[in-house]
Amino acid sequence: MMKRVLFIIGEVCVGASAFAQQLPQGVVVYALPMTSVQIQAEATREVFTAGPYAKFAAKYLGVEVTAENRETYSLKSIELASFVEADAAQTYTLALKNNRSATNFLTMTAAGPVAMFEQNTSASVAWRFASAAREAGFHNRGVVSNLAKETTTLYKTEKTATGFERVPVQQSQVVEKSVERRAEETANMIYSLRKKRMELISGDADNPLSGDAMRAALEEIARLEEEYMSLFVGKSSFDTQTMTFEVVPDAKQAKQLYIVFRFSEAKGLLAAANLAGRPVVLELTPENNVKAMPSNASDVDKKGKRACYRIPEIVQARVLDGQTALLQTRLPVYQLGTVMTFPIDL
């Protein structure tokens, strides 16, 4: 029986499923637990489309605006969650000789010091931004016609009593207005709306309004002004990018610093290996409460009467974007803790 248990320990790296049917009755394979940290980041993407009259905003409205299209990202939220899973690098076998042993072991499993192997499934989800349609919102570029009448003066020569003279002849034609002309007329409409709003508020309007009629009129004036102003200042559309990243802390690392993901104002959320963005780091600072406890892990006897278990270390977890702390919390990390033993037949 002793040779049988030692053989199982030597082959445990193969995985529990490979030799589950070879275990004697009452012998279990278990692992010490470890903690993984999952961070879900959400970024907001802004697609800015410059107004068609942007370059005339300073001239006709006295405001400075951006005349170039751009796409920018900003971090919106960070969520952190921790999960406990079996550490395949720390597996043990244990002979449960009686019901009391089984009850004690199952109690330890439920409490968390040990973990049983379970089948984990995961699904991969890919999500990409839709391509932005530029200038999609500038259908109404004013309330006046896009055409204008121009009068051109031509000259023709006519014979008179005194000789030949140049006689002016006016000729009218309809031409398309220039962009600046349309911008000027739109600016005039904005000023007209502002004047009308002031008249309504001050009571100087020809037909004064009150109550719901006043409210409806002011709301419509505000809507029209915003629509016309967008032709100068531009419009922005927003959508969201969400990605999930996982970190498994390693007790062998002297400094518990992990690059969770990278972020770029131009490209958004990126994988940790993508150097196109700045790093967002998970910093774990152990409180060193568990390491001060005496460990009896050396008390493991060769008869399999003691079960190994882990006591987690409590750490201060911070998610850092440079020197800015985005999130801070406390959480237990098993693999940074200490290993203890427990007499299973107690």
Basic shape: elongated
**Are there runs of 5+ residues with pLDDT below 50, and where?**
1-20, 118-135
Alpha carbon gyration radius: 38 Å
H/E element order:
HHEHEHEEHHEEEEEE
The helical percent reads: 10-25%
Strand order of the largest sheet: 7-6-8-9-10
Derived from helix and strand composition plus strand pairing, the structural class reads: alpha+beta
Mean pLDDT, all residues: 77
Task: Enumerate how many helices there are, as a single number.
Answer: 6
Total number of beta strands: 10
Provide the number of structural domains. 2
Query: Roughly how many Å apart are the termini?
Result: 22 Å
Reported for the largest beta sheet, the result is: 5 strands, antiparallel
Strand content: 35-45%
Summarize the structure.
Helices cover 22% and strands 42% of the residues.
Architecture blueprint of SSEs:
Blueprint: H1 2-10, H2 16-19, E1 27-49, H3 57-60, E2 70-95, H4 99-111, E3 147-160, E4 163-176, H5 179-202, H6 211-233, E5 235-247, E6 257-264, E7 268-270, E8 278-286, E9 306-321, E10 324-343
Antiparallel strand pairs: 1-2, 1-5, 3-4, 6-7, 6-8, 8-9, 9-10
